[in-house]
Amino acid sequence: MGREDVIKELLNPPEQAFLVGAEWKMTPDGRYVEHAWSAEESLAELERLAETAGLEVVGQSVQRLDRPNPATFVGKGKAEEIAETIRGLGANVVVFDDELSPRHQRELEALFGNKVKVMDRTGLILDIFAQHANTREGALQVELAQYEYRLPRLTQAWTDRAFSQQTGGRAGGSTGGVGLRGPGETRLEMDRRIIRQRIAQIKRELEEVRAHRARHRSQRRRNGLPTVALVGYTNAGKSTLLHALSGAEVYVADELFATLDPTTRRVELPGGTAILVTDTVGFIQKLPTQLIAAFRATLEEVEDADLLLHVVDASHGQAREQARAVFDTLQEIGAGELPILTALNKVDQFADPQSAGLALYDLPDTVAISALTGYGIDTLKARLEEALEAEMARVSVLLPFERGDLVSLFHERGLIQTEEYREQGTVITGRLPHVLLSQFESYHIKTRKK
Fold this sequence. Notes:
This protein starts with a helix and ends with a strand. Helices cover 42% and strands 20% of the residues. The longest helix is centred in the middle third of the chain and has 36 residues, at 187-222. It folds into 4 domains: 3-130, GTPase HflX, N-terminal domain (Rossmann fold), CATH 3.40.50.11060; 134-207; 224-390, Rossmann fold; 392-448, Alpha-Beta Plaits. The protein has helices at 3-11, 39-52, 76-89, 102-112, 121-132, 136-150, 156-166, 187-222, 238-246, 289-294, 296-303, 319-332, 377-391, 404-413, 437-440, and strands spanning 16-24, 56-65, 93-96, 117-120, 227-232, 263-268, 274-279, 307-313, 340-345, 366-368, 392-399, 415-421, 426-433, 444-448. It is globular and about 80 Å long. The relative contact order is 0.08. The strands form 3 sheets. Strands 6-7-5-8-9-10 form a 6-stranded mixed beta sheet, sandwiched between helices. Strands 2-1-3-4 form a 4-stranded parallel beta sheet, sandwiched between helices. It has a 4-stranded antiparallel beta sheet with strand order 12-13-11-14. It has 15 helices and 14 strands.
């Protein structure tokens, strides 16, 4: 730690956090739950998240119970035990490993006292995203997710605390004034109204972002370059792999959610084919639904790819569980049926890289690599070329002017190499996914696999 870091920590010491994990047999409505992760494994990941957010973890506790307590999430006795423990440790933040309901939040805040901040995994992840949002697009998406998460949890205690921080601790006075809804509106009501207005405004701005990204993707399609989206668990090494594939500078950091904004680089494959590879935001188990919805503009880069390259940290003890979390998220965003190639990364951590990750070779089309050392990168490029050729067919079609729908479909899903207008219609030469060939069968000039 450098001198400046030491001074910064002395002036702004990290908040002291206590972590709480729970494992239950049934959901609140009585359905049995199968846990891919043990409570301890999940809590270890939560600790890494807490450290990434700048918290100092001073203790943790796990409880196994039949189902979540409707008032305090964990059992009431356990909650009281935690309250006593955090007082002894001096912790001022309690982080739960599962999403708390607004009622849980209120009851726990009342039990722990107003000097203790109660958070859950979702709130913690949103905080990390806020720290790492370096572009306007990223900041807007995080802000939307935060507001939609906080709105149902907004309480008078929360808004009093926020107001006190903004006014340097002065007591709040009248909330009336020019532009407000009228006398009698409480600060809490005003906060809720302002947040709803801000949510509507952000959604309008993000629609413009989505349209802008769609235009860029359409332009890339017209350039005739196949697109590959890197997907994977957070910190699996996607950014390092993008650098290894392209040779271009890419921001890389050994921390969770270092990359929020999509980064696209051109990659040359062995046969001379050029492709575009996009690094996307990492996934995680229990990924907040607010983030999936808010990051729709970013995740559309995944949905519109010709091929997914799933990067798995083969050296991680929960590699298989992490892969399952990625598959589940892909299904949730509508990308579960896209062709996929799996890169078993970080095999340099094994004594014998060739046999590394053997237990994971039942994942789709695996290639063992080390993005850090370059091991297996040439093999991966060759496999990418084979996979893309297998999914696409070269076609030349003459589409009548009344079939503008097919012209649009070719632009959206195909790779256009040439396009010209003739008296009979539009002639397009390029590549199409095999699943779309039947729709163009009546209009083809020639069709052959590349």
